[in-house]
# Entry
Amino acid sequence: MAQHPLVRTYVEAAELHGQASVEGKHRAANTQYARLITAWRELRAQGKDGRSALTGLLQDSNPRVRLWAASHALEFAPVLAEAELERLALGPAGVVRLDAEMTLSEWRAGNMKFTED
# Structure
């Protein structure tokens, strides 16, 4: 089954953001972050179909994609999202693990907001 162009953009931006961040290429990381957030907002606006697309990405082969999808899915599928973040937080040492740990910590502390700002 062909992947929706918006989902492809989300996946590509998540992968490239992670790669640029690790390489210290901050402008490139910021560019990919902007693409990722735009795709997330558009998926979010699609309601059930967008939510389904994001939860489907919790099975992606790339841990960076799963990290972003889980972070965004906390808003509407907290049980699934937390489970994936917990798996990532138990993974190999690195940025993905640290980000998963921090995301869970901030979520559980009530500090995460899902706004259009």
Q: What stands out?
A: Residues 5-108 form a domain with the Serine Threonine Protein Phosphatase 5, Tetratricopeptide repeat fold (CATH 1.25.40.70). The radius of gyration is 13 Å. The chain has a mean pLDDT of 93. The chain has one domain: 5-108.
